[in-house]
Every structure is written in structure tokens, then in C-alpha cells.
């Protein structure tokens, strides 16, 4: 049990470090026209620390996040190399990128609740 807790703690620490460093790299070294609008929202690390799934959000149109996702995936090896210079791990995890639509979903739910409140206020 102790090993599992220690491994979970280490995985969380590595995920936090990868998120912070990857965010910095994307903002300062990533050469893409969409980068100014990109935010790394969270990172999940596999238990063996070999894979990092990075979730990102983009302020803009639907097409912007698709273009940004394509650019991030194409630049994964560059971003991994940059990450290797900032993080102290024996092996730097392989990076995977996915669009995080949770902010859009939260906004959509807030709009629905506002409509419900407006409807109830009218009655």
C-alpha cells in the first residue's frame, strides 16, 4: 500500500512539473501563430512515467483548437526535447496532446442554468 501511495504522489509531482514546464515552453519557445492563445490545462502521467497526456485550451474559434492541436502534435518531439532540458527525469515522457473542452462545457452549463433561472423568475 505504501508503494502505491508513494508512486501516486510521485506521478502527481511529475505531472505538475511537466504541466508547469510545458506551459512555459509553449509560451516562450513554441513557434506557432496560435501559441499566444494556448493554455496547458492539465497533464496526466502514466504510472510508469513513460507517457504524458497534456490537455490544452484555446481562446478562439473551433477551427483554432484543431489547428493548434495539429501544430502541438507535429511539434511533440521538439517540445519533448525542450522539456528534457528543464526536467530532471531519467526518461522524459512521450507527449500526447488533446483539446480540453471542459471550459466550454462549463460555460454552456452556466448558460443553461441562467436560462432556467430566468424562466423561473418570469413565473
Structural overview:
By secondary structure, this protein is α+β, with helices and mostly antiparallel strands. It has a single domain, classed as K homology (KH) domain (GMP Synthetase, Chain A, domain 3, 2-Layer Sandwich), CATH 3.30.300. Helices cover 57% and strands 18% of the residues. The radius of gyration is 18 Å and the shape is elongated. It starts with a helix and ends with a helix. The mean pLDDT is 83.
List keywords for this structure.
123 residues; 3-stranded mixed beta sheet; 3 strands
Give start-end ranges of low-pLDDT stretches. Answer: none
Sequence of strands across the biggest β-sheet? 1-2-3
One letter per element, helices H and strands E, the order comes to HEEHHEH
What is the terminal separation in angstroms? Answer: 56 Å
Total of domains: 1
Mean pLDDT reading: 83
User: Which CATH class applies here?
Assistant: Alpha Beta
The residue fraction in helices comes out at 55-70%
Structural class: alpha+beta
Q: Main β-sheet: number of strands, strand sense, barrel status?
A: 3 strands, mixed
Any idea what the CATH superfamily is called?
K homology (KH) domain
Would you tell me which CATH topology applies? Answer: GMP Synthetase, Chain A, domain 3
How does CATH name the architecture? 2-Layer Sandwich
Q: What spatial form do the alpha-carbon principal axes imply?
A: elongated
By DSSP (H or I, 4+ residues per run), the number of helices equals 4
Number of beta-strand segments: 3
